Amino acid sequence: MSKRSLLSSRSARRLYLPAGVVLLLIILFFGRTVDVLSVIQRPLSALGTSIYEDVFYFLTAGSILPSELEVLIGQRDAYMVDQTELELLRDENNALMELLGFLERANYSTVSANITGRSIGPDSNRFLIDRGEEDGIHEGQAVVVGEGFIIGKVLSTGPYTSTVTVLSDPDMALAVSILNETRTIGIVEGGMGNLLTMSFVPEEERIEVNDIVVTSGLDESVPSGLLVGVINAIVVDDQTPFQEAVVEPVADAHRYSQVLVILTDTL
Amino acid sequence: MTRILWFILLFILLTSLELAFISSLPFPFSAAPLVITLSILRLQAQNDPYAIGWIILYGILLDLFRLHTLPFATLAYAIAAVAALIMSRLLFSNRSFYGVLGTTVSVLIVLSVTEILTLFATQLTDTSIISLEDYFSFTFWRMIGATVLLLFFFPLQRSFVSRIHSLF
């Protein structure tokens, strides 16, 4: 059957009316439709993430067993949490009792969410979660995993779903603080593959490789003290009075199928 | 009505599989374009022009949830859908595996070119940069992924897919 006859045939005309009705129903109940679909998508996403993690351990394990690597990563994370906690507690003892740190952060209200879809493209740097405005989620809120590692911010929300942008997205910017002597503040940005850059750090600031980077709290809706990553390299340009820190995020969003969203009204 | 329901159910299934499962896999497996490949398989091998609707709806969905790295996914996918229809009718009219593969690869090239053009257009006002090298690598693996998917699904079309076809 040619295209013209197909489009003008009676059967085709019969097709358009129900198609319109079905599409109208889907549009009207879009939020609920997506909510129902997340029941299918959650296990699919969890299965894909599990395969990703297996491949990650297989490729990065080298001469050690995947279980050993997992233990080492766990230890590294624990050390980073301990050190960050220590630094923040030291700050607290010095003067600022109201400084938000990990002890207080534990009191934040969070919403647990499942990842139901991920973006496609050269950098898969967005994902969909099954929680939305109905659960108190708004744009800009911090999304964390594990012991409080920030992996991104809420980009957009619907009634029952939200889209999250991960830190390595080229459009992402996050106010951070380096846990060095002077608590250097700045902004990390994505756009360097899986790494982040912290530009325009004054050259007189003493920053070193392996310094821990946490959120500064200057971002609206993002609490301070959330672990971002560690400084991987420092780029000094003699032509400018600034230096640049390359930050390696602690958490890889691909390795998680569940996240926590920190609710703004509890900050 | 049954036809429409199957059309929508299959679209939901394919979209869920691609966005929830395939995109969670490690690269390059995550680059496999399931929806586009199966749409073209239906369009060309099963002679169903409505299958391009899946490609357009997929683009709309990506824009709706802002799940595409590049902007205006609806536009890019709509152009790809039209290209699929034209190429399957005029250029690769053969229904063989190579015919379907030719259409699929050509449509992926059209999609990539459109996406890159929209990227350049938006970069006039936006400073965010996506590495073109990464993008070409992604496009290459997308074609490989499509070929692998076709190698798997093309032999099935006479049995499994044709049974689905009978429902339409």
UniProtKB/TrEMBL annotation, chain A:
<keyword id="KW-0133">Cell shape</keyword>
<dbReference type="Pfam" id="PF04085">
    <property type="entry name" value="MreC"/>
</dbReference>
<dbReference type="InterPro" id="IPR007221">
    <property type="entry name" value="MreC"/>
</dbReference>
<dbReference type="InterPro" id="IPR042175">
    <property type="entry name" value="Cell/Rod_MreC_2"/>
</dbReference>
<dbReference type="InterPro" id="IPR055342">
    <property type="entry name" value="MreC_beta-barrel_core"/>
</dbReference>
<comment type="similarity">
    <text>Belongs to the MreC family.</text>
</comment>
<dbReference type="InterPro" id="IPR042177">
    <property type="entry name" value="Cell/Rod_1"/>
</dbReference>
<dbReference type="GO" id="GO:0005886">
    <property type="term" value="C:plasma membrane"/>
</dbReference>
<dbReference type="GO" id="GO:0008360">
    <property type="term" value="P:regulation of cell shape"/>
</dbReference>
<protein>
    <recommendedName>
        <fullName>Cell shape-determining protein MreC</fullName>
    </recommendedName>
</protein>
<feature type="domain" description="Rod shape-determining protein MreC beta-barrel core">
    <location>
        <begin position="115"/>
        <end position="262"/>
    </location>
</feature>
TrEMBL record, chain B:
<protein>
    <recommendedName>
        <fullName>Rod shape-determining protein MreD</fullName>
    </recommendedName>
</protein>
<keyword id="KW-0812">Transmembrane</keyword>
<feature type="transmembrane region" description="Helical">
    <location>
        <begin position="134"/>
        <end position="154"/>
    </location>
</feature>
<keyword id="KW-1133">Transmembrane helix</keyword>
<feature type="transmembrane region" description="Helical">
    <location>
        <begin position="98"/>
        <end position="122"/>
    </location>
</feature>
<feature type="transmembrane region" description="Helical">
    <location>
        <begin position="72"/>
        <end position="92"/>
    </location>
</feature>
<keyword id="KW-0472">Membrane</keyword>
